[in-house]
């Protein structure tokens, strides 16, 4: 049924109708009517941020925690440029976020921001009437969520928001992910059934497609060990006797193990086993939704196969098709490898104790968003993830842990969510503590404070003969700073105190900042 409305209403009502439940934004030019529409549109929430980069980072965190799309609404020009850091992170984390901006009136006939956003968005369009807004939103959501999930951009020209016309709000787009070519899946099942030493490498795609149960079923049936990429952590529970942990090139015993396998199935990973672990491409089967990454690292031999398919559907099919019995029981080898991995790091203190305190305090379904800091780097290999969608990677973007964690907390308000920050990274977006207080986002922020861009500093010490440039930091008093935002601050000096403060934070429903002073930290590897 058509109803008369302005372009702003068409936008926000369409987003809500497509199941986009939140917009992170900074209001302003070219979006007044759109922001006004949140006042009385059901099913969608508007969270105002204090800078545009966090709008896209929070949308990214929301998407990762919920596997649902989220949106960011920002002013064109500087606002959209500010948002780009978060868009590029979402691109790398395969997060379906919809970035929306206006364009100044005189741009209607000129260049669109789509042009310069092209390298970091999968799809973009410009809407030039309210009806077109309503038509483009479902397209945007479909583009973001189908195939390889990724950021998209929709530009709505300012005059369109005020313009009124009869508009039809479309029902939710249905997305049918590809199940994969049946013959190819049969061949893959036969190859896996015949393998004596199969290995599975799981990536982000397993999270995005909700494929964890199917992954566990296939792994148990064969049986096969499962390693994950960094962002894939949690695809299989690290409690499983089949979990090999993080696939890490620097960890020689694991690389050797991977290279000795006769068939390696890689699912939902852009890097793939050839790139990540140096596995012979002729022994690789890849399953991916993205034709662009699918063929890379897959050899020409009979034993190599690339299948374009949704991870969950393909893994369900494979789990049903494989004939178990041929593969050797890998559990002893896995236990030995994990023993070496964890044994090796006994001397790596205090990282080990602090990460174990985090693990002990955070419940199995709780979320850890780590940042580009030394404790975060340590967590990649030694934080055990017990459930899908519980371990978030910053994808190289310093400062993203706090806003990503906040977006995740908006998606899952009843789940503890921790941002693992350094003193360098946390000050990128510390102002978002104001957002957390205003919008009741009870995130827990842990700041490991070494008064330095510590990992860069260590590199200068070890690789540049101690010629320190630009790495020592002068910090605010983190406790007084957080208290000035209305956020409880606590300083802890050891791992057991950290655990207690985390548990106290999770028991409350307020944002909390915990500062952990640390000295210089050793290199992880
Ligand atoms: C946007 C961005 N800028 C710069 C960097 C480079 N960088 C990576 S880690 C780091 C230092 C981080 O310092 P801190 O957050 O205090 O963590 P620490 O290394 O001290 O543990 C820097 C500058 C980056 N990864 N991303
Ligand atoms: Mg630091």
From TrEMBL:
Note the Pfam families from the entry.
TPP_enzyme_C, TPP_enzyme_M, TPP_enzyme_N
Enzymatic reactions: 2-hydroxyoctadecanoyl-CoA = heptadecanal + formyl-CoA
Keyword Mitochondrion carried by entry: no
Q: What CDD domains is this protein classified in?
A: TPP_enzymes, TPP_PYR_POX_like
Q: Alphabetically, which GO biological process terms does the record hold?
A: isoleucine biosynthetic process; L-valine biosynthetic process
According to the record, the segments passing through the membrane are: none
Q: Which UniProt keywords apply?
A: Thiamine pyrophosphate
**According to the lineage, what is the superkingdom?**
Eukaryota
Please name the GO terms that the record assigns under molecular function: acetolactate synthase activity; flavin adenine dinucleotide binding; magnesium ion binding; thiamine pyrophosphate binding
Every Thiamine pyrophosphate enzyme central domain range: 185-318
Q: Where is the Thiamine pyrophosphate enzyme N-terminal TPP-binding domain?
A: 5-110
User: Where in the numbering of this chain does the Thiamine pyrophosphate enzyme TPP-binding domain appear?
Assistant: 377-516
Q: What does the entry list under GO cellular component?
A: acetolactate synthase complex
Q: Which family does it belong to?
A: Belongs to the TPP enzyme family.
- Would you tell me the protein name for this molecule? Probable acetolactate synthase large subunit
Origin species, per record, is: Geodia barretti (Barrett's horny sponge)
């Amino acid at each position: 049924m058509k109803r008369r409305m302005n372009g702003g209403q068409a936008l926000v009502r369409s987003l809500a109708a497509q199941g986009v439940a939140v917009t992170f934004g900074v209001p302003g030019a070219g979006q007044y009517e759109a922001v006004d529409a949140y006042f009385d549109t059901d099913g969608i929430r508007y969270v105002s941020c204090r800078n545009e980069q966090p709008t896209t980072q929070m949308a990214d965190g929301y998407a990762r925690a919920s596997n649902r799309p989220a949106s960011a609404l920002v002013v064109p020009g500087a606002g959209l440029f500010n948002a780009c850091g978060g868009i590029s992170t979402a691109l790398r984390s395969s997060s379906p976020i919809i970035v929306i901006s206006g364009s100044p009136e005189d741009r209607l006939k000129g260049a669109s921001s789509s042009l310069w956003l092209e390298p970091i968005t999968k799809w973009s369009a410009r809407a030039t009437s309210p009806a077109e807004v309503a038509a483009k939103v479902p397209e945007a959501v479909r583009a973001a969520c189908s195939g390889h999930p990724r950021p998209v951009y929709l530009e709505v020209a300012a005059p369109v928001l005020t313009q009124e016309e009869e508009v039809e709000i479309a029902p939710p787009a249905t997305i049918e992910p590809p199940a994969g070519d049946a013959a190819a899946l049969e061949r893959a099942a036969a190859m896996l059934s015949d393998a004596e030493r199969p290995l599975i490498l799981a990536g982000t795609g397993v999270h995005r497609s909700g494929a964890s149960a199917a992954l566990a079923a296939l792994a148990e049936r064969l049986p096969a060990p499962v390693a994950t990429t960094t962002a894939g952590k949690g695809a299989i529970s690290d409690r499983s006797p089949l979990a090999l942990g993080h696939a890490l090139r620097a960890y020689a015993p694991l690389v050797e193990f991977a290279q000795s396998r006769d068939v390696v199935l890689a699912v939902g990973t852009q890097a793939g086993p050839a790139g990540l672990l140096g596995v012979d491409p002729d022994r690789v089967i890849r399953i991916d939704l993205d034709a662009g990454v699918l063929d890379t690292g897959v050899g020409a031999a009979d034993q190599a196969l690339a299948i374009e398919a949704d991870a969950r559907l393909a893994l369900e099919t494979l789990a049903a098709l494989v004939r178990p019995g041929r593969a050797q029981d890998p559990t002893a080898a896995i236990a030995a490898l994990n023993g070496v991995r964890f044994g090796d790091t006994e001397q790596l203190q205090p990282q080990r104790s602090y990460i174990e305190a985090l693990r002990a305090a955070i419940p199995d379904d709780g979320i850890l968003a780590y940042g580009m800091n030394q404790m975060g780097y340590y967590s990649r290999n030694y934080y055990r993830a017990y459930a899908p969608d519980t371990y978030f990677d910053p994808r190289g973007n310093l400062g993203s842990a706090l806003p990503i964690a906040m977006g995740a907390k908006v998606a899952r308000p009843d789940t503890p969510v921790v941002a693992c920050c350094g003193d360098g990274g946390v000050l990128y977006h510390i102002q978002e503590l104001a957002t957390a207080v205003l919008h009741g986002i009870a995130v827990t922020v842990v700041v490991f404070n070494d008064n330095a861009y510590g990992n860069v500093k260590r590199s200068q010490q070890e690789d540049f003969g101690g010629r320190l440039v630009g790495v020592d930091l002068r910090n605010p008093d983190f406790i007084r700073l957080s208290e000035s935002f209305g956020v409880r601050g606590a300083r802890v000096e050891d791992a057991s105190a950290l655990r207690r403060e985390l548990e106290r934070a999770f028991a409350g429903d307020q944002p909390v900042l915990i500062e952990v002073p640390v000295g210089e930290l050793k290199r992880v590897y």
